[in-house]
Each structure stands twice: as structure tokens, then as C-alpha cells.
Amino acid sequence: MTNRVVPLAATWGPEAGRLSRRLGAEVGGEQQVRMLFEAVARRSPDGRGTDPMAGSLWRACATGRNGVAKLASNHHLSERQVRRRCTGSLGFQPSVFRRVGRLQNLLRQAREAPGRLSDLAVAAGYADQAHAGRETKGMTGLSVRVLLDTQRRWLTETSDSFKTA
Hints:
Layout: H1 8-12, H2 14-25, H3 29-43, H4 54-62, H5 68-75, H6 79-90, H7 94-112, H8 117-124, H9 129-140, H10 144-164
């Protein structure tokens, strides 16, 4: 199952659609993460839910800047424990969450403070514009410019539809 995306509905059934709609209605990432953890906890076979540190580890990874050594130090864990807890609770290695976090940061930066692509990339946590390009293409199949243009068009269309409604 490495490097595969399985639709949530394939494992959770109709509950996946309900959760997706609820997540889409939330504005902030923090509320979305909390909702995901609560949903996973409800489905946990032992009723205990996820690792209590999972949320903290996710937030630290999502900045796109924290390596495993820094996560371990900040959470008073060994690097092995960080990897094991992320994989066990969240389903991915910390490096995957850092990549997702950087991509989310890039999209947010472009939305909130548009500027030169090289500046956006560095502000989002990438080493440089080329790093942003490689990761974006690898994760989305799109170049950074196409992804940002698509986001800009979608935001324009969405805001226009609210104005005419």
C-alpha cells in the first residue's frame, strides 16, 4: 500500500461522505484536524483512539520545517518513537506530513500574500523554488504555477458565485 491513495469511502463507507462534508464546512485547519482525530477515535476498536501526542506531532510536522530530530527533541522522544508514533497514529512517516505541510503553506502564502514564486517557496518552508517545484509535481502532478493558477481561478469563481447568490 505504499504510495497509494485509497478513498476513505472504501474503508469507512457512508460515514466518509458525512465526515468529508463536515470537514469542508470548517474554515480552520485546527478544527479539521480535531474533527479527524475525533472520527478516528470513535472508530478505534479498543475505544482509546489515537496516540495522545498525535495532534501535537501533526501540528509540528505541518509547519514543513521540523525534521525528525527536532520533533524528537521538542516532544522528549527518541527519533524512532517519533517515527513509530506518526506511522501508528497518523498512517505516514513524519516526512510525508512535512511535505503536505509545506504544500499547504505554499497555497496559503499564495492566497494571503501573493508574490514571486521563489519568495513564496522559501516562506512556505522549501529550500528554494526548485524544491517547491519537485515536491509539488510529485504530490499533485501539477507544476507550482499551474497549481497556484488553478487555486486562484477557483477562489475567484467561488467568491463570484457568492456575490451573485
